[in-house]
From TrEMBL:
<protein>
    <submittedName>
        <fullName>Ger(X)C family spore germination protein</fullName>
    </submittedName>
</protein>
<dbReference type="InterPro" id="IPR038501">
    <property type="entry name" value="Spore_GerAC_C_sf"/>
</dbReference>
<dbReference type="InterPro" id="IPR057336">
    <property type="entry name" value="GerAC_N"/>
</dbReference>
<comment type="similarity">
    <text>Belongs to the GerABKC lipoprotein family.</text>
</comment>
<dbReference type="InterPro" id="IPR046953">
    <property type="entry name" value="Spore_GerAC-like_C"/>
</dbReference>
<dbReference type="Pfam" id="PF25198">
    <property type="entry name" value="Spore_GerAC_N"/>
</dbReference>
<keyword id="KW-0309">Germination</keyword>
<dbReference type="Pfam" id="PF05504">
    <property type="entry name" value="Spore_GerAC"/>
</dbReference>
<dbReference type="InterPro" id="IPR008844">
    <property type="entry name" value="Spore_GerAC-like"/>
</dbReference>
<feature type="domain" description="Spore germination protein N-terminal">
    <location>
        <begin position="23"/>
        <end position="196"/>
    </location>
</feature>
<feature type="domain" description="Spore germination GerAC-like C-terminal">
    <location>
        <begin position="218"/>
        <end position="375"/>
    </location>
</feature>
<dbReference type="GO" id="GO:0016020">
    <property type="term" value="C:membrane"/>
</dbReference>
<keyword id="KW-0732">Signal</keyword>
<keyword id="KW-0449">Lipoprotein</keyword>
<dbReference type="GO" id="GO:0009847">
    <property type="term" value="P:spore germination"/>
</dbReference>
<keyword id="KW-0472">Membrane</keyword>
<keyword id="KW-0564">Palmitate</keyword>
Length: 382
């Protein structure tokens, strides 16, 4: 037998002892989880998973736009998060895959109880990523997970999964990822803000049929890992100017009475200086925002519009601070700056209280708005 023939026989024999892909699974035979819901009631953890058939939501020319996309929701109950998830496996019929989860939604009961235990369990799943969007809600989690987008597109096209598309046109309370949220609630001085999801049934119709849509209607604030308060979007109108990633937000001037103009503001720059007046802590706030004129109902110089817009933003910031103070939360992130710049003073103030802010602790709110564009019309400057 020649040496060349012997090598061929050895190679062919090796093929019969290879193990092959015994553990492989066909992608169509797996249940892909896209969102997770966490609830707590009467000593039990209640978990929800949203499962989609990706053959129905994939982008292809064969998919009929407007065709209803079915959503499957699994519900589990257990004394621990792991036990609750395992109870779903027993009836799933298919292997559950967690690598496509993009959002986690927590009920108010879960937020009030505390989120550390729940998210410690969730983050131990190796398939789950750290940059998932996270929300709170007082709606039923099963109702949240069945909401479709416009044209009956899948839940993957809703605000819960793709908030950036909405923020490009209107941004007020920005979504937050899980890693960012946990870094906030675990860090002293951080307020820990979590957007709240709601179902709005009043805006959209399909022909004459009401079509509910998801909406961010406010935010939850935390003390350590437990929910401390909820404030509506209107109550947080001034807090949005502390968010440097804010892309586009509309205001009317003046703040009350008949509007004379609508101005779009974007990309605020927010800074805080901590001052001390004897034993009291004072804060100087500075906000710089650029914008453009969106609508003008009365002929008025641009410089006057800028001054009126500055008054609107200044009043909104002051009102939001008062709204937060009434519920004992720091919506303007003032204590974070105290902790960063003067940690010893922060620790001394927090030995006997959770919140050191008091009425009148904001000494000055310096707002400057620059209208850089008036659209296709030229407006007078003075």
């Amino acid at each position: 037998m020649s040496y060349r023939l012997l090598r061929i026989l050895v190679a062919v024999s090796a093929l019969f002892v290879l193990p092959g892909c015994w553990n492989s699974k066909d992608i169509q035979n797996m249940a892909y989880v896209t969102a997770v819901g966490l609830d707590y009631d009467d000593g039990n953890f209640i978990t929800y998973i949203q499962v989609l058939n990706f053959s129905n939501v994939g982008r292809s020319e064969n998919i009929e736009v407007g065709k209803t996309v079915p959503v499957w929701i699994g519900r589990g109950v257990g004394k621990t998060i792991s036990e609750s998830f395992s109870s779903i496996y027993s009836t799933s019929q298919m292997r559950v895959f967690w690598g496509h989860v993009k959002a986690i939604v927590c009920s108010e009961n879960m937020l009030k109880r505390g989120v550390r235990e729940a998210f410690d369990a969730v983050n131990r799943y190796r398939e789950l990523r750290y940059n998932l969007y996270i929300y709170g809600t007082n709606e039923k989690l099963s109702d949240i997970f069945v909401q479709k987008s416009i044209f009956n597109l899948s839940p993957l096209d809703t605000l819960m999964f793709t908030p950036e598309q909405i923020y490009a046109q209107r941004s007020s309370i920005l979504s937050v990822t899980g890693n960012r949220f946990f870094s906030e609630i675990n860090e002293p001085g951080e307020p820990g803000m979590l957007p709240s999801l709601a179902i709005n049934k009043e805006v959209w119709k399909e022909d004459t049929k009401d079509k509910p849509m998801l909406q961010i209607n406010g935010a939850y604030f935390f003390q350590a890992t437990k929910m401390a308060a909820w404030l509506s979007e209107d109550e947080l109108a001034g807090a949005r100017w502390t968010q440097t990633k804010l892309k586009r937000c509309l205001i009317h001037v003046p703040l009350s009475g008949k509007p004379i103009a609508a101005i779009v503001l974007n990309r605020p720059r927010y800074s805080v200086k901590v001052r001390f007046d004897k034993d009291e802590v004072k804060y100087d706030l500075k906000v710089r925002i650029s914008g453009y004129l969106d609508e003008l109902l009365q002929d008025i110089p641009i410089t006057d519009l800028e001054t009126m817009a500055e008054d609107v933003v200044r009043n909104q910031i002051s009102d939001s601070f008062d709204n937060g103070l009434a519920k004992k939360v720091d919506v303007l992130q003032l204590e974070e700056h105290l902790y960063r710049d003067h940690p010893k003073r922060w620790h001394a103030l927090h030995q006997t209280q959770n919140l050191s802010l008091k009425p009148g602790c904001i000494r000055n709110i310096d707002v400057k708005i620059n209208i850089v564009n008036t659209g296709k019309y030229k407006e007078k400057q003075e």
